[in-house]
Amino acid sequence: MPPDFRKIVFGLVIFLILVTLPLWTNLLRGTAPLEDPEISTRDVPGKDRCVREAEYMKANHMDLLNEWRETVVRDGERGFVTVDGRHFDRSLDRTCMDCHNKQEVFCDRCHNALAVSPYCWDCHIGARETKDGSTALR
Amino acid sequence: MTFGFSLFVVALLIAIPALGAAAGGHAFWGVVIPYAALAIFLAGFTARILGWARVPVPFRIPTAGGQQKSLDWIKSSRLDNPHSAWGTIGRMALEILCFRSLFRNTRVELREGPKLAYGSSKWLWAAALAFHYAFLVVFLRHFKYFVEPTPAWVTAIQGLDGFFQVGLPVLYVTDALLLGAVAFLLGRRLLDARVRYISHAADYFPLLLIAAIAVTGVLMRYFFKVDLLGVKQLAVGLLSLQPVVPEGVGAMFFVHLFLVSSLIVYLPFSKLMHLGGVFLSPTRNLPNDNRMRRHVNPWNYPVKVHTYEEYEEEFHEVMKAAGLPLDKEKSCPKAS
Ligand code: HEM
């Protein structure tokens, strides 16, 4: 073997460890469970369905929110009618968070798992638990 | 022709998982394919490197862009023509992190006269640098799908990358850079007649494949959204050896994953192997110390030598008789 063979094998081992790093991290440290978000109003009459079908909401809720925001802020149109004829106010705090009233185990749970940090909460109040146990908005 | 062929193969690599995943069998597309691809990648990469490592490189190859170390009062170029280990490490770092050699890229033109004119041309260097760093950052950002909890450094680079908060989901600067750079590198091969002349399918294919990966990624982010929590459950499952196949992840994800799998399978057997090869470039990773140290070829067979000293001893009498000058009996004839 050429004199540099050992050095090259050493470098190769470093590379192999680096590219499989996620594997070792997960195997050695273990992974936190990836729980589905909790729907707190599933059994509450009138609040048991989302503003659109769950399939759509799962992946596209940010589009809907963006559309709501622009419709309200630019056109002043607040009324929203779902396909099955229910009426809602196009509002992040008063509508979404009225049903999804436990933000920590709903919006935040997903967003933390996927390292998404919407800047909306810089201004919008959301529905996180406050110190006295009540929800912030109400 | 070679371009058409590459385009056709990439189209095939998109169509197969698109049709396949739409028909179901997500355990195959989401678990079997990535595991197989990873195994081929690791084995192929190791085999290529070990193959190269077995080749002896006994001599220094001084293709250097600077003054060699010689006399003390001649200034030597320590990084471009290093003679010490640290200088060589510096040259390798410049090469790998800054693409030093590519920075020397020139362009030749035939001007009126006719005169041959050489000019510096930094576009290729700039695009290549943008391409590789954008790729690296995109890849590192993907760690948020691979480990749970997401490491803080991933969140940090993601925040920096989306710094401008344009659009929703926010635009990542590296996405724009990656797509722009790939477009430039492809355009260079297609539009410049001289580069097109020397381009093969092996040049177009990897560019098109990486472009397809980036485009499917961006499409997935903005237009054909998928359930990312499902994606993460699948990816973390794979990478903790407990595969799960979540319901209802969109087909676009399986296309992206299949293209990435194709890329890593292709990598060890193609020019993309420069990922490992750049570290083994003999013209870069050896100090140019040919004049300072003697490098003996390790596969020299033992040669029977007969030095002049021995020769003179053997023929001493004959030479003396013939009146030839002899080293042994020289009384140090100092020049007058
Ligand atoms: C060579 C490796 C890869 C490259 C170059 C690549 C490239 C990209 C790019 C450019 C995007 C656009 C959005 C962004 O930058 O985040 C993207 C998105 C995405 N990639 Fe990859 N990818 C790679 C590997 C993977 C793997 C192995 C997975 C499997 C988990 C994956 C899953 C995704 C998903 C789910 C998205 C959508 C992100 C979103 O909607 O925010 N990618 N990819």
Shape of chain A: elongated
Note the run of SSEs of chain A as H and E.
HHHEEHH
CATH architecture classification name of chain B = Up-down Bundle
Count, helices of chain B? 15
**Estimated radius of gyration of chain B:** 29 Å
Q: What does the overall shape of chain B look like?
A: elongated
| Structure ligands | protoporphyrin IX containing FE
- Main pleated sheet of chain A: 2 strands, antiparallel
> N-to-C SSE series of chain B?
HHHHEEHHHHHHHHHHH
Q: Uncertain spans of chain B, ≥5 residues at pLDDT below 50?
A: none
Give the mean pLDDT of chain A: 86
User: What pair of chains forms the biggest interface?
Assistant: A-B, 39 and 43 residues
Level-1 CATH class name of chain B: Mainly Alpha
The CATH topology of chain B turns out to be Fumarate Reductase Cytochrome B subunit
State the domain count of chain B.
1
Percentage of residues assigned to helices of chain A:
40-55%
Radius of gyration of chain A, CA atoms, in whole angstroms: 23 Å
> What share of residues of chain B is helical?
55-70%
* Terminal CA distance of chain B: 77 Å
Describe this structure in words.
The complex is a heterodimer of chains A (138) and B (336). With 138 residues, chain A is mainly alpha-helical. Chain A has a domain at 52-124. Chain A contains five helices and two strands. Chain A has helices spanning 5-19, 21-29, 54-75, 92-99, 107-113, and strands spanning 79-81, 87-89. In chain A, strands 1-2 form a two-stranded antiparallel sheet. The longest helix of chain A is centred in the middle third of the chain and has 22 residues, at 54-75. In chain A, 11% of the residues are buried. In chain B, helix 2 packs parallel to helix 12, helix 8 packs antiparallel against helix 10 (201-222) and helix 10 packs antiparallel against helix 12 (251-266). Chain B has a single domain (2-302), classed as Transmembrane di-heme cytochromes, Chain C (Fumarate Reductase Cytochrome B subunit, Up-down Bundle). Chain B is mainly α. In chain B, strands 1-2 form a two-stranded antiparallel ribbon. The A-B interface holds A 1-5, 8-9, 11-12, 15-16, 19-20, 22-23, 25-27, 30-32, 34, 36-37, 55, 58-60, 62-63, 65-66, 110, 112-115, 117, 119 and B 42, 45-46, 49-50, 52-57, 143-150, 154-155, 158-159, 165, 168-169, 225-229, 232-233, 236, 239-241, 248, 250, 276, 279-280, 298. The complex binds protoporphyrin IX containing FE. Protoporphyrin IX containing FE binds at residues 135, 138-139, 141-142, 145, 169, 172, 175, 178, 213-214, 217-218, 220-221, 228, 231, 235, 253, 256-257, 260, 263 of chain B.
